[in-house]
Amino acid sequence: MNEPVKNDAPVLNIENLNVKFVTEDGVVRAVNGLDLQVGKGKALGLVGETGAGKTTTALSILRLVPDPPGVVDCEKLELNGKDIMGMSTHELEQIRGKEVSMIFQDPMTALNPVFTVGDQIAESIHLHENVSMVEAQKKAVEMLELVGIPGDRAGEYPHQFSGGMKQRVVISIALACHPQLLIADEPTTALDVTIQAQVLDLMKELRTKYDTSLIMITHDLGIVAEICDEVAVMYAGNVVEKGTLEDVFNHTLHPYTEGLFNSLPNINDRKAMLKPIPGLMPDPTDLPEGCPFYPRCQYADEACKKPQQKKYVSDTHYIRCCAYDREGFHIERKEKT
After folding, report:
1. Which positions ≥6 away from 303 have C-beta within 8 Å?
2. Radius of gyration of the chain from Cα atoms?
3. Helical H runs in 228-254?
4. For residue 258, how many C-alpha atoms fall within 13 Å in the half-sphere facing its CB?
5. From first to last of its 337 residues, what are the pLDDT tens digits of the chain?
């Protein structure tokens, strides 16, 4: 099936993104020909194992890949139709925080310990919204209250807050200027389960309030099911399956996605054995010529040793796999819980 025609311009449009890191030990190919689009107001879950290239992709959107050793090449990287690759440093500083913001993985290190949380929120507002520092401070208090922190704590320092409250502060900084795209990199990893739920509920509420598009980077499929509209499954630096939540969760087609689901514990059968994906992610300095997953794939044959192109199975669902249309091919999913 050919790629469907899209009429609505996406907030984010990436075509053929490649990121490599040139080191003394070789060239690390972190992202390899990735295409990704995020629609206005949509939430996309970017999932995959550690080392799949998820965070590198996010840093590329913000042009924050360190150079050297990083080398970024992309045919098209657009935010609201603006060419990110062609922007100057000054232009990038204008859009970071205002049009696109990022919540980093560890709230413990995302805040500056020598400035109050109110000053750190106000700095972003003052920089992007052309208001006085007094007005920015006032809005910073409002943003704290919006994420459930009393405004009178604006004068306190990060060490006076718990991990969950620090993450709320980080979210308030990211959303202070109402960006059109929010990138959240494992935003609940460092938090305990009850605080995770509160933070996710807060993000859903604020995303709806501001009609913000979201990229949720995670390895937790439960979080994706709760908060996302679409799913992109990454492996060895590229998207191997992408579709709506319904497409990927209930009509799984790629063997790697199958492996991710089947490696989850069964909450209805505590004695059931886990079924991990055999083998390891390929060495990014020595990737296979064809499908990078074929050395671990139970369906692999000689055809898998050739590069796999995107194949649309519906208007919203594509995979990079040549096995799915073979006679007798059948994804084996554990019973849904």
Report:
1. 322
2. 21
3. 245-250
4. 20
5. 556 545 578 999 999 999 999 998 899 999 999 999 999 999 999 999 888 999 999 999 999 999 889 999 999 999 999 999 999 999 998 899 889 999 887 777 889 999 999 999 999 899 888 889 999 999 999 999 988 899 999 999 999 998 888 988 998 898 888 889 999 998 887 777 887 888 888 888 888 888 899 999 998 898 899 999 999 999 999 999 999 999 999 999 999 999 998 888 766 666 777 788 888 899 999 998 889 999 999 888 889 999 899 999 999 999 999 888 777 777 776 554 4
Q: How many CB atoms lie within 10 A of CB 225?
A: 13
Measured distance CA(258)–CA(263) in Å, rounded: 9
The span from the CA of 11 to the CA of 212, in Å, is 10
- B/e letters for 29-52, b = 16+ CB within 10 Å, e = fewer, are bbbbbbbbbbbeebbbbbbbbebb
